[in-house]
Amino acid sequence: MKTILAYALIVVGVPCLIGMWVGSIVVIPVSRLLLKSLEIRPTHLLFLEFFNGLVASAVGAIIFLIFGLTPGLAFPIIIVAWVTFYFVTYHQPFQSWVGWLAGIVVGWFTLV
C-alpha cells in the first residue's frame, strides 16, 4: 500500500509542483541579480531552471524516504514525463526544459 501511495503522489505531480515553488525561491533572486550586474540576455538565464528539477528530485526522494521505500527507475521517468508534457503543451522554451531535465538527472544520481 505504501508503494502505491508513494507512486500516486509522484504521478499526481507533487514533486514537480513543489519543485516549481521552491526552485523559484532560488531562481528569481539569482536571475534578477545576474540581470542587473552582468550584461546577460534573459534567454541565458533559462538554465537556472536546473534548481527546479533538483528540488523535484529531492521532494520525490523525500516522499519515498518517508514511506521507507526505495524508488525505482519509474520515479525519474514519471517526473520527466510530467515536465515534458508541461513544456510541450504550453510551448515553453527548450532551454528551460533542458535545465529541468539536468536537475532531475543530477538529483536522481546524487539523492537516490
Task: Give an overview in words.
The chain has helices spanning 2-12, 14-37, 50-66, 74-89, 94-111. The chain is elongated. The relative contact order is 0.19. Helix 2 (14-37) runs antiparallel to helix 3 and helix 4 runs antiparallel to helix 5 (94-111). It has one domain (2-111). The model has no long low-confidence stretch (mean pLDDT 89). It has 5 helices and no strands.
Number of strands: 0
Strand count, sense and barrel status of the largest sheet are:
none
The average pLDDT value, as a whole number, equals 89
- The number of domains is 1
- Helical content band: over 70%
Give a topology summary.
Layout: H1 2-12, H2 14-37, H3 50-66, H4 74-89, H5 94-111
Which terms summarize this structure?
112 residues, mainly alpha
Short description:
With 112 residues, the protein is an all-alpha fold. The protein has 5 helices and no strands.
